[in-house]
Amino acid sequence: MSTQSSPILSVLTEDLLIRVNEKLVQDSDRKIWRLICKEFHRVDSITRKTLRVLHVEFLPTLLKNYTNLHTLDLSVCPCIEDGTITLLLHRVDHSMWARNLKFLNLRRANGLKFAGLEMLVGACKGLESLDVSYCCGFGDREAAAISGCGGLKELRMDKCLGVSDVGLAKIVVGCGRLVRLSLKWCMEISDLGVELLCKKCLELKFLDVSYLKVTSDSLRSIAALPKLEDLAMVGCPLVNVVGLQFLENGCPLLQKIDVSRCDCVSSSGLSALIRGHNGLLQIDARYTISEFSANFVECMQELKNLNAIIIDGARVSDTVFQTISYKCRSLIEIGLSKCTGVTNMGIMQLVSGCVNLKTINLTCCRSITDAAISAIADSCRNLLCLKLESCNMITEKSLKQLGSHCTLLEELDLTDCFGINDRGLERLSRCSRLLCLKLGLCTNISDTGLFYIASNCSQLHELDLYRCMGIGDDGLAALSSGCKKLRKLNLSYCIEVTDKGMESLGYLEELSDLELRGLDKITGVGLTALVIRCKRLAYLDLKHCGKVDDTGFWALAYHSRNLRQVLNRDIESGLVSIEVLFFHV
After folding, report:
1. What is the rounded radius of gyration, in angstroms, for the C-alpha atoms of the chain?
2. What string of DSSP letters covers 223-286?
3. Rounded to an integer, what distance in angstroms lies between the CA atom of residue 358 and that of residue 382?
4. Interatomic CA distance for residues 398 and 181, integer angstroms
5. Which of 88, 204, 78 is nearest to 135 (CA)?
6. Per residue in 312-330, pLDDT tens?
7. Helix (H, G, I), strand (E, B) or coil at 532
8. Helices (H), 468-572
9. pLDDT tens track for 501-538
10. SS3 state at 174
């Protein structure tokens, strides 16, 4: 960092510098900015509102420099414990950071207990949002500490396995202003806790009780919430049609409901819900209803504002699609994964009326052919996401239509679509806004097809080439040149890839998640070339890469400071590092 500012900076006021700094959106740009000179670093320090910390040893210095934070994310800094909080709060020059904090993420902070949490809550007087999900050791004492956040509006406690009705009672009494609450997988919470929650927290707009052992009595309590808009109750096996009938006459503002994997919920229960809430915007009933009853189809005609319906695993018919097409013209998302009865004609009927669809999931709808995809491409010109995994009858003709009409497409899943070839990828490459492309098990594509994608899809963030045997070093060279923003890449069992390909991947500076399983031609030399440049690598799969030796792992440990997980085992030779290796460097 320069010790003196350039003379030209003397004419720039702090206000102007702040305005320039606010224009920097990318983290890499902000990093370069604060390294230019001390003044730029100071401006960055006073304007930064969000901080995500990877290494606990840097935390004291960072919090000393950034005292105006609104959001602090410690979810990837798992070594937080009571002693860490004591250190941060009992240094006068470090305690300022807590004063303005509004949002705190402590996911997976399993080392933090009651004493540290109580100190933290006491210091962050203005805290409005707290996430302690996956703190599996949290119990009622920790819940009591959280209850000290009187101004808390949002609380996520997913998988806090020790929290019971007693702990929940303390929270709802102390945090009566809660607007959003997630209790997913808090297995000790019962109908009693939910009942007290619904009496005390009348401002709730979002509630998640997924995977709890609650019964329909809880839905009787929830129905009394006057402002509830979004209810998630995934995997609640004791909730049945009676519970949904309670909701029929309650929750007047309800807009979204998720009853996925609720085994005792039927189409008649959903019909009752719809009758009382014809203003519903989203219904998620995946793997819940086996077949649509005539009554349910009739009720759906009232859902004129519905914009998303997910019915994965259900038996459907062309009549259902016809009803949706005529009556639900506001639909922007439909999920039909593993549905039986999905035909070309049904899809054609659907998209003829629902021309605003942006997300369509047809995973494992094996009767679908190019005719259906052509209809989708022709009608849904604003399509953003299309999932076609295991739709084996589609060919390059489908990709030609998508490339011609759906140029806004951002996500496409073609996993196990073996009718896709290089010529199809050439046509698809016209979708230059693609962010995510999955081509796993597409055995008829090669480096040539990958070259087309790399040449035109420069925005690509995620690419899956699992078991694409025709992909080799030349394809990776094209990829590293054209897709500089790639963050996630799966090359597992692309057996033609060698160290030369690893060297090419080193130029993907944004790469954070890489799967190389089964690449028996790469060695420690290739891994070293990769990790020297890929500084952001966080997840790496090296299982069955038998030729990668200790030199590669030494380079990995030395250069990959952000690495969080390595999967590695050579089953044949037994030479290996560790099945799951965590680095805290």
Report:
1. 27
2. TT-TT--EEE-TT-TT--HHHHHHHHTS-TT--EEE-TT-TT--HHHHHHHHHH-TT--EEE-T
3. 6
4. 43
5. 78
6. 999 999 989 999 999 899 9
7. helix
8. 473-482, 499-505, 524-533, 550-559
9. 999 999 999 999 999 999 999 999 999 999 999 989 99
10. helix
